[in-house]
């Protein structure tokens, strides 16, 4: 999703790990930091097909904030919709364009009416056919009939009904291939509708039909599962799923996701949630995933920098990518959280190997001020993510390891006290209850 | 019916004669019970009888007569005399004898307390009541009806230390629940006065979670103080009741303490300004409950807690930064607070005035000293004693016929593994 462009920095080979973040004056590494160029909408849109193309273009138009980009996106959306049959979406786009693109991009009522009329007649035809099949009770035909209905509704933007029809084919599926076909359709519509619980359940169903699964389908299912985890904020699971997607995916799933997206989502989620060993084994050493990473060189640089502790450049890459990432429909809501988690991880990882850290050098390494850094570290220490204490006078961070022995004594004494208290209270209460009982049951023996 | 001199003489003779051992004392008691009405009608004429009896030897008889004497309403100047005589009696009486007639003893003690309050000199009653408690108790684990009165007197006369010494005893036997509630409530207040918040929390907890079919005003007031002490001591308050709290309490206590729960909410924000705002709003409620002092302590405990949190994150910190984080007005104020906390032992730190820095230190306790070993040992012994107590109580209850009756009915009829000698149908 970053610009489909050609600026890839020189491949960074084996670097010596700097103890204290990067050295500004180091002339050996000349890395042109790509300033996140504005998203090339045409190239971006070319990655996708089908309904998602339009949805994404509309989303960009909504969120980009720059009128030129907005109009560009809307224009492309208009063209795309005209190729399809969704009149509802058409009217929406026209409303958004609001005449700014000239008379060619206005409300073409004639076209819309023609499409609607065609739709009506097609719908009647499909209904008749379906009824015929139903009376004949030929499973395969009924299945095809419902499927066609589903396709029809999907093309016309009536997603709820499309979903219902796709699901209805389930009773008429005879082979695993049918089931998988149904599941894939259901998944497609659910993602468009944003109902990711359905996505998870249908992925599960599809994975059970083992004999129908070929590598492409498996890759597709994994992508879908990853997306639903991402929406559910389960970043670790999402990362795992995306990283398992095989290179067979290629351009076979462009109606939902592009391979660049797989790389981006997978990497960001992995960075935010994996620990170091998992990061190395599942991302950096993952040969399959390398194919995806080649498509997005900035992300590849990002990961390498993080792993080799060049935090400043890593965070710089992230910062540059941010604007473009915010235009992605799936990632939009999660960018902030993921970024925060990655930054925290970087801070924690930086301090981990040291007994004492000079806050000034650390602030340089992270390109921030000492006071700001102090505040961030304070938050991390309070959440018990870093075991250290800050010497605010000398601006040093000291690692602090709790004394196990003292802690154990303290806990033992405390437990003893609590037990003592609870037991006494309990005996007292038992006595009170006995007293009560004696009062209520004067029947003595 | 007129009490003739002869019957009076015979009364005194009886007392003299039957005061040597427990068998005779029981006989004496029955006799005295029969004479009770007579004594009551002749209460005004009984005073000279007292001179013929020795309170330490003839305690039981003396008690009856004294009780009858004092049952009549008296004037204020006579109150003094009464207080003296009762106090003297309490000091010298024989404990085993008075335990045979506890209601009488309790009633004269209560009268003593009443008079002492009327004379507006509660301190006079503290020592006598302490002695009376010790004599009336069959063991230090028993709570008598006099305990709450004693606590009240301690509170009114501000003799907190004596009250604390009585609170040291663990109570396991209770005659009347109401006594326990009052005792714990007053005891809690004494502990608060002495800043022993842990014990106060324990006592108030006992009141709030005690089994009670309907809630009483004592429980409501105790709950309010419980919330405040919990905030001061623990820095938080768990609004959910433990499982063993009575359902009446769980349902109703919160309704009466809305303003306090609001205070809890504002406290959990961690900002002093929030808490002060809340206090301003509910000042009247707190005032009418006489809890304003406690509420002020809650506010100051907020500063303490915030500073304590800083010790977890920082090794050294400037006074200016402390003032900023904890929302104090100046570094001087921060210095004052930190100084006070160091003196009270809440934190370990050193203040460097030249640089305006505070250095936080670790708890110097190394758990290596003999005192610590002794403390651990003492704790272990104590818990072993308590556990033994629990086991005995369990055994006693398993032999209790009413318990067995209830369990027996629900037991299965055919049990091949065990052969119970208790018949399955248990009728008493």
TrEMBL record, chain A:
Residues 1-31 are annotated as: Disordered. Transmembrane segments: none annotated. Residues 234-404 form the PCI domain. The keyword Nuclease does not apply. This is PCI domain-containing protein. Keywords: Coiled coil, Cytoplasm, Nucleus, Signalosome. Residues 15-29 have a biased composition (Basic and acidic residues). Signal peptide: none annotated. Residues 116-143 form a coiled coil. PANTHER family: 26S PROTESOME SUBUNIT 6, COP9 SIGNALOSOME COMPLEX SUBUNIT 1. It comes from the Eukaryota. The lineage of its organism: Eukaryota, Viridiplantae, Streptophyta, Embryophyta, Tracheophyta. InterPro entries: CSN1_C, PCI_dom, Rpn7/CSN1, Rpn7_N. The keyword Signal does not apply. One of its GO terms (cellular component) is cytoplasm.
């Amino acid at each position: 999703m970053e610009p489909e462009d050609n600026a890839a920095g020189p491949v960074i080979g084996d670097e010596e790990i700097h103890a204290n973040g990067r050295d500004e004056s180091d002339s050996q590494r000349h890395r042109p930091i790509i300033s996140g160029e504005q998203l090339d909408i045409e190239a971006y849109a070319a990655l996708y097909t089908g309904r998602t193309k339009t949805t994404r273009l509309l989303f960009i138009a909504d969120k980009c904030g720059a009128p030129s980009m907005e109009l560009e996106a809307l224009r492309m959306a208009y063209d795309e919709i005209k190729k399809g049959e969704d009149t509802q979406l058409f009217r929406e786009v026209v409303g958004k364009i609001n005449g700014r693109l000239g008379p060619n991009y206005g409300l073409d009522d004639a076209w819309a009416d023609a499409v609607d009329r065609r739709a009506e007649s097609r719908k009647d035809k499909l209904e008749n056919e379906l009824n015929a099949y139903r009376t004949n009770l030929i499973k395969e035909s009924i299945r095809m009939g419902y499927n066609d209905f589903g396709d029809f509704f999907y093309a016309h933007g009536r997603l709820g009904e499309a979903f219902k029809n796709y699901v209805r084919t389930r009773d008429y599926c005879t082979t695993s291939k049918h089931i998988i076909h149904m599941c894939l359709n259901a998944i497609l519509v659910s993602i468009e509708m944003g109902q990711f619980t359905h996505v998870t359940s249908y992925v599960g169903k599809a994975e059970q039909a083992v004999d129908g699964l070929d590598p492409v389908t498996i890759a597709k299912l994994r992508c879908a599962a990853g997306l639903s985890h991402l929406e559910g904020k389960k970043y670790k699971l999402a990362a795992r799923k995306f990283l398992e997607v095989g290179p067979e995916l290629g351009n076979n799933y462009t109606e939902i996701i592009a391979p660049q997206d797989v790389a981006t989502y997978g990497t960001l989620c992995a960075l935010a949630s994996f620990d170091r060993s998992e990061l190395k084994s599942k991302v950096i050493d993952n040969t399959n995933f390398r194919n995806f990473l080649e498509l997005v060189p900035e992300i590849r640089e990002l990961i390498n920098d993080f792993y080799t502790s060049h935090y400043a450049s890593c965070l710089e890459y992230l910062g540059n990518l941010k604007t473009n990432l915010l235009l992605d429909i799936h990632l939009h809501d999660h960018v902030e959280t993921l970024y925060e988690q990655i930054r925290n991880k970087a801070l924690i990882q930086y301090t981990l190997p040291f007994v004492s850290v000079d806050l000034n050098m650390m602030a340089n390494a992270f390109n921030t001020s000492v006071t700001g850094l102090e505040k961030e570290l304070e938050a991390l220490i309070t959440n018990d993510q870093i075991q250290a204490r800050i010497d605010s006078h000398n601006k040093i961070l000291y690692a602090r390891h709790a004394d196990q022995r003292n802690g154990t004594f303290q806990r033992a004494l405390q437990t003893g006290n609590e037990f003592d208290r609870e037991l006494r209270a309990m005996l007292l209460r038992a006595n009170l209850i006995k007293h009560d009982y004696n009062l209520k049951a004067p029947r003595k023996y | 019916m007129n009490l003739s001199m002869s019957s009076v003489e015979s009364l005194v003779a009886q007392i003299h004669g039957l005061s040597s051992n427990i068998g005779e004392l029981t006989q004496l008691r029955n006799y005295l019970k029969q004479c009770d009405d007579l004594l009551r009608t002749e209460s005004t004429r009984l005073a000279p009888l007292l001179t013929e009896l020795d309170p330490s030897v003839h305690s039981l008889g003396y008690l009856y007569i004294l009780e009858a004497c004092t049952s009549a309403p008296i004037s204020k100047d006579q109150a003094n005399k009464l207080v003296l005589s009762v106090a003297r009696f309490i000091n010298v009486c024989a404990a085993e004898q008075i335990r045979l007639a506890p209601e009488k003893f309790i009633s004269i003690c209560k009268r003593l307390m009443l008079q002492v309050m009327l004379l507006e000199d509660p301190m006079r009653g503290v020592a006598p009541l302490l002695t009376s408690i010790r004599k009336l108790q069959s063991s230090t684990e028993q709570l008598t009806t006099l305990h709450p009165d004693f606590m009240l007197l301690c509170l009114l006369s501000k003799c907190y230390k004596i009250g604390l010494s009585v609170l040291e005893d663990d109570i396991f036997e209770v005659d009347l629940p109401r006594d326990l509630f009052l005792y714990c409530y007053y005891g809690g207040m004494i502990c608060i006065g002495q800043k022993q918040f842990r014990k106060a929390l324990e006592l108030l907890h006992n009141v709030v979670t005690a089994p009670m079919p309907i809630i009483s005003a004592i429980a409501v007031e105790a709950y309010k103080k419980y919330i405040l002490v919990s905030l001061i001591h623990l820095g938080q308050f768990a609004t959910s009741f433990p499982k063993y709290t009575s359902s009446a309490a769980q349902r109703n206590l919160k309704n009466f303490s809305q303003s306090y729960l609001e205070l809890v909410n504002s406290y959990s924000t961690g900002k002093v300004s929030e808490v002060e705002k809340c206090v301003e709003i509910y000042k009247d409620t707190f005032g009418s409950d006489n809890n304003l002092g406690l509420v002020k302590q809650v506010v100051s405990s907020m500063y303490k807690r915030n500073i304590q949190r800083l010790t977890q994150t920082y090794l050294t910190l400037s006074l200016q930064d402390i003032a900023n984080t904890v929302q104090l007005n100046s570094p001087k104020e921060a210095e004052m607070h930190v100084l006070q906390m160091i003196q009270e032992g809440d934190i370990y730190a050193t203040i460097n005035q030249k640089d305006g820095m505070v250095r936080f230190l670790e708890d110097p306790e190394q758990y290596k000293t003999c005192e610590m070993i002794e403390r651990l040992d003492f704790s272990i012994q104590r818990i072993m004693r308590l556990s033994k107590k629990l086991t005995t109580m369990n055994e006693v209850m398993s032999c209790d016929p009413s318990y067995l009756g209830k369990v027996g009915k629900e037991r299965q009829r055919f049990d091949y593994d065990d052969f119970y000698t208790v018949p399955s149908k248990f009728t008493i």
